[in-house]
User: What shape does this take?
Amino acid sequence: TQWRFAIEETIGSVQHQYAMKFKELIEERSNGEIEVTIYPYGTLGTSDQITELVDMEVVQFAMASPGHLGKLIPEVQVFLLHFLFSDDDEINNQVLNKDPRLQKTFDELYARKRLKLLSIFSEGWQVWTMKEPVHQPEDFSGVKMRVMTSPLLIAAYKAYGASPTPLPYSEVYSGLQLNMIDGQENPVFAIQEMNFYEVTDWMIFARHAPFITTAVTNRDFFDSLPPERQQLVTGVVADLNDYILKVQKEFNQERLELIRKNKPKLKIITELTPDAREAFRKASQPVRDKFIKMTGEDGRELLKELQQTIQEYEDQKQQ
Ligand code: 6CS
Assistant: This one.
C-alpha cells in the first residue's frame, strides 16, 4: 500500500522533518506493508492546492496551515490572532498539542470539509523580516506586508496601518526582491531556508503570534481504514508531538546563528520595548471582532474556549 504525504514547506523544513518521521514510523510499524511518499513544497502546488488534493484523495495526508486554510475553514483563523497566546512556549504547546478539548472542537470543524485533524502544533514564533525597521505600530504605516492568504491576516495588519498583500509562499522571495512587498513574517527556520533574510535588512522578534500548522488526512480515507490501521496513524501522530517540538526549537535556534553568520549586516531587533508591545497589543484587539464577524457564534465560542484554555494553563503554571 502506498500513502502520500504532501507538505507546504521545502526539504529541510520542520514539516519535512515531521513527514520523514511519520514515514519512518508508519513503515516500521506496518512491517513494510505501507510505504509513504513525501511531496515537498514545489512538487504539487501551493498550500491551497495541496488541501484540494487531500479532498480529492490524490494525497492521503498533508499539512494545512491556518494561514491558508482559513479561506476554507474560517474558524481556524483564531490561530492567527495576535497577542492571543501566552508568551510562554510551554503553555502554548500544552494548549495546542496536548489538550484534548481543542482537538475535538477543531476536528468537528474539519469534518465539515471532509478533513480529519490529526495534530496541531507550533513551528515557532512568527518573526518579521523587513526592508525598514519596525519598532512600534506607526512604523507599519503604508508598509506592504506580505501575509498568507487567509483573510483575517489582512485585517491583522490593516489594524497596524499596513497594506497587507496576500501571496503564496513561493512568491515571497521574488516579491521582496522586486520591491513588490516591504516585509513578511515567518518562523526563523523558514526565513533561513527560503532566504528571505537576503532580501530584507531588518529582522524583528515581536512575539505577536506563533506559526501554527495542522496535519490532516482525508476523512473518507481514514474512516475506510480497518481499525488497526486507524490506530497505527493516531499512534504515530501522537508519538510525533514531542518530537516535532524539539525539532522546531533546534531548527529555529541553529538557523538564527546561520543567518547571523551569512549576513552580519542584518539588523536584528530581538524584542520590542514593553510600551511598544502594549501599543501593538492594543491595536490588535479590534481584529477579534472582525474574526467574530467572519465566523459568527461558532467563532465567538471558539475564541472564548481558546482564551479560557490558555488562561487555565497560565494559572496552573503560576501555582
Ligand atoms: O508563509 C507561508 O506561506 C508558509 N510558511 C511556513 C513556515 N509554512 C507553510 C506556509 O505556507
User: Anything to note?
Assistant: The two ends are 50 Å apart (CA to CA).
